[in-house]
Amino acid sequence: MIVDDAFDPVLHSISRLGVLTPDERRAAQVRERCRAQMRRAPKPERRLGPVLFTGLCLFYVLALVLDLLRLRGLL
Amino acid sequence: MKGMDRDSELALVGRLRAGDRDAFDAVHDCFNTRLFNFLARLSRRREVAEDLLEETWLRLVARAAYLQPDTRLGPWLFTVAHNLYVSYRRSRMLEDSHSAGLIGLWPSGSVPPSPFDWAVASEAGRRIEAAIGALPVAYREALLLVLVEGLRPAEAAGVCGISPEAMRQRLSRARAALAASLDVDEPALAALRELRT
Fold this sequence. Notes:
The complex is a heterodimer. Chain A is an all-alpha fold. Chain A contains three helices and no strands. Chain A has helices at 9-14, 24-40, 48-71. Chain B is built from nine helices and no strands. Chain B has helices spanning 6-17, 21-43, 46-63, 73-95, 123-133, 137-148, 153-160, 164-181, 186-196. The two termini of chain B are 29 Å apart. Classes of the chains: A mainly alpha, B mainly alpha. The A-B interface holds A 1, 3-4, 7-11, 13-14, 16-23, 26-27, 30-31, 33-35, 37-39, 41, 43-44 and B 19, 21, 24-25, 28, 32-33, 36-37, 40-41, 49-50, 53-54, 57-58, 60-62, 64-66, 116, 118-122, 124-125, 127-129, 131-132, 143, 146-148, 153, 168, 171, 175, 178-179, 182, 184, 186, 189, 192-193, 196.
């Protein structure tokens, strides 16, 4: 939104909004809880699915090529 | 992200993905107050805002390892907070048979006594808080995300799950509604802006 701040009383009013402060003790508790959860969280497992799928595809293509070469008498 | 350049933000995302707890602290320091302000003004209840804020951080921790490397933390966190607030409202609407006033763009009618006594110092501040609080939720969230939190309208549209065009319309209407309740002559203001361009 392109607004000229100097001529915008709405923006001027909004800039006078106070900052609401969250409960510090609760914020500290939440932070600790989150840190503890991060400590416990297992690392994301490596995805074997795509690796296996790619390997099978490569194996299939290689087998096709070998068959083709054998049929042509090159092997 | 206010007060942090994009490179630092990307580095922080990388560290979060790797489970770096200090990175979490840095994100928490940067966004905790901003998210609380957003949720408190959206819900107009301190305890609700505190609960939703806690849940937002727990969601970040649960999803940290699966964040995309190019995640923009601000929009991501505000999206989670916004969605949690929407879920909260839905559950309240189911509980409250007199909740017709909360649906969609419909103004909530009588605004409950403001919980902002604990925060608003000046008369002007009280006026603007009351005016924002009286806006329909859809307008209020648009205004808070763009004009208060400094998100780009396209980012705010993503947070609210609407198109950028719909966000621009909501913003425009929100500004007009706010100007009306603050006795600001919005048409004259628009004419003045046109003259200057």
